[in-house]
Write a structure and sequence with these properties.
Blueprint (H helix, E strand, L loop, with lengths): L10 H13 L3 E3 L5 E3 L2 E2 L3 E4 H22 L2 H7 L1 H6 L1 H14 E2 L2 E2 L5 E13 L3 E8 L6 H17 L1 H6 L7 E2 L4 H19 L7 E5 L7 H13 L3 E5 L1 H4 L3 E4 L3 E4 L3 E2 L2 E4 L20 H11 L4 E3 L2 H6 L2 H9 L12 H8 L5 E3 L2 H9 L6 E4 L8 E3 L2 H8 L9 E4 L10 E5 L2 E5 L2 E12 L2 E2 L6 E10 L13 E3 L1 E4 L1
Parallel strand pairs: 4-27, 7-16, 10-11, 10-15, 15-16
Antiparallel strand pairs: 1-2, 3-21, 5-6, 7-8, 7-23, 9-27, 12-13, 13-14, 17-20, 18-19, 18-20, 21-22, 23-24, 23-25, 25-26
């Protein structure tokens, strides 16, 4: 296949690859219970080996920092108080946090053991190098998809080497192994067996995944569950509403689930938005009170937990901004060395709080294309770009300022050759693909619990450079993988 006819990929080949994807769980559930494959690229993106090594080195340090910040409860309450006043959802989280931990004068140590399963998302900016976009400390999913799409590219390379080579940026590139699913499962298993040992119990550990009702991203979740089952761990799934009637307390602050028994690990794939706690049948005077209290109840038990409320607060956009604005020397209070602190600082992009002064500067002096406006929301649809920023800022009241932040906009390298995106079993040539690099990590009780110092694989999501929303669910994003070049 040469460059003149490489745009043509036989429909039979596309369908074979899509069927492989569905067979291996790289899919979303549809409303009629059928499966639709996730969109993906036909060949990986390239990254310079040194850039990857730098990220690979810094991610465990970021995780160590966030892990320790998430357990510094006095700091969280003092640093995020203004944001909690400005954002109703985070106001609810802060109230839960104070309920769990007490206030500065009366500390309470909850029984839960923190299990930080984090994904740190980066873009490799053309001018400034790789920088953090955001931290994801709750519902940080798609590690299974990350590993599977790496395997999908290996499948394409083996079955259709001409197609793979034709769409590869650099034919001398080396595929990068991805153990996102395997390592995340290892971290969870380690935590589960630790809790089990604390109670001197001999039966199988139990893993509880808290999910959204009518979830379409079930296959990514089930891949993780299957990996845990292979390690001798029983897995169960419940919504917050189901848990509100099924949880109870056993001896030694053991968390018990009706019909199942003792729970060793709780993993939240829900809980990052108000709707996850909404139960209209309860007719609550305070929105979402009953179901959000499940977070408090769980933290009062001897169980490995991701995410704690502290972890969710510590990975907020405002905390990212505060850490970015601090001198690196201040990170030493959370266990980093001076060298480690400078490494962390090297990947943090500039951020600014929203104030009357910042708004005036932005409207009169800033180059608007160099900034993005973010609120505290998770997932797609929470960013404002370019000229739209001024319009959005004009609608905010002073009381709302602390819920928002300006961040340096990152412009990653565009792929040097066109690529093919496969969506709904149809091929589309994309001329200007750019990629977001998510690196997973796992820490339990402040210590790494993977084979690689806490690093746990990666997730690549690519999109056309002209698209602002790169989500696999809702945007124009496609799953991708990495190959290394020197």
């Amino acid at each position: 296949m040469n460059s003149n006819n490489k745009a043509v990929i036989a429909q039979q080949t596309i369908e074979d690859i899509c069927e492989w994807a569905i067979m291996h769980g790289v899919a979303f559930r549809q409303a009629d219970n059928s499966a639709r494959h996730c969109p993906f690229s036909i060949a990986p993106m390239t990254i310079e080996r040194e850039v990857y090594r730098h990220l690979r080195r810094v991610v465990p340090l970021l995780t160590k920092l966030i892990s320790n910040v998430s357990e510094d409860h006095v700091f969280l309450q003092s640093a995020l108080g203004d944001m909690a006043q400005a954002d109703p959802f985070f106001g609810r989280l802060m109230a839960l946090h104070q309920q769990i931990h007490g206030n500065a004068s009366q500390r309470v140590e909850p029984a839960r053991q923190p299990l930080l399963l984090m994904r740190t998302d980066f873009m490799d900016d053309r001018q400034y190098g790789a920088k953090v976009i955001e931290f994801n400390g709750i519902a940080a999913g798609m590690a299974p998809f990350g590993q599977r799409v790496t395997e999908l590219h290996q499948f394409v390379q083996y079955q259709w080497p001409e197609i793979y080579q034709a769409w590869l940026e650099n034919r001398s590139a080396t595929p990068l192994v991805n153990q996102g699913l395997t390592q995340l499962a290892l971290g969870i298993e380690t935590a589960a067996r630790s809790i089990k040992a604390d109670f001197n119990e001999q039966d199988a550990p139990v893993f509880l995944m808290v999910v959204q009702p009518n979830e379409d991203n079930v296959y990514d979740q089930h891949l993780l569950e299957a990996a845990l089952q292979q390690q001798g761990i029983r897995t169960v799934r419940r919504t917050f509403e189901q848990l509100s009637a099924q949880l109870s307390t056993g001896s030694g602050q053991r968390l018990l689930l009706e019909g199942v028994g003792a729970i060793d690990v709780v993993y939240l794939r829900a809980g990052y938005q108000y709707s996850d706690y909404c139960a209209p049948a309860l007719h609550e005077a305070v929105c979402c009170y009953t179901l959000s209290q499940m977070r408090v109840f769980i933290e009062q038990h001897h169980v490995a937990l991701n995410a704690t409320v502290g972890q969710q607060l510590a990975t907020s956009k405002t905390m990212q901004m505060l850490l970015t604005m601090m001198p690196a020397q201040q990170y030493l209070r959370w266990g980093l060395t001076a060298v480690e602190a400078e490494l962390v600082k090297s990947v943090l992009a500039e951020m600014k709080p929203i104030t009357a002064t910042t708004i005036a500067w932005f409207n009169t002096q800033a180059i608007k294309a160099e900034w993005v406006l973010k609120n505290q929301g998770e997932g797609g649809g929470h960013c404002v770009f370019g000229d739209d920023i001024s319009a959005t800022l004009a609608t905010l009241t002073a009381a709302e300022y602390d819920a928002w932040a300006l961040m340096q906009r990152l412009y990653p390298h565009e792929r040097e050759v066109p690529t093919v995106a496969i969506r709904d079993a149809q091929a589309t040539v994309v001329m200007d693909l750019v990629s977001e690099i998510g690196l997973f990590s796992a820490y339990f009780n402040g210590k790494p619990v993977t084979d690689f110092d806490g690093y746990a694989g990666y997730l690549i999501r690519s999109k056309p450079a002209t698209e602002n929303e790169g989500g696999i669910h809702s945007g124009k994003g496609i799953l991708d993988s990495l190959v290394l070049i020197d």
